[in-house]
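User: Run a structure prediction on this.
Assistant: Running it now.
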Amino acid sequence: MQIKVGEAAEVLAIGNGFPGWWGYYPWMISAAPEIASIECENTRSFIPFREPGVLFGGTVCRLVAHQKGDATLYFGNKFNLGEDAHALKIAVVVEDE
């Protein structure tokens, strides 16, 4: 993934709707938060059929690029997520403006 310094890109949207999380809550972390960090907020979407929905709400996470460099994003279960326990990892390249 490529992003420029100062930009933000939505990378994860989690809805709080039925049937619940069943022990797995999707999340992500950055291995180099000084280069690119993850910022999440509780919010709702008014776009039909999009998660997080208008009825139950949810969380939207964005990748924010701070300085030029490389970072790795790890996706997985929020409760055991780390460099050793992840379902997916993505390389991020942050370029100058």
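The first strand starts at residue 2 and ends at 4.
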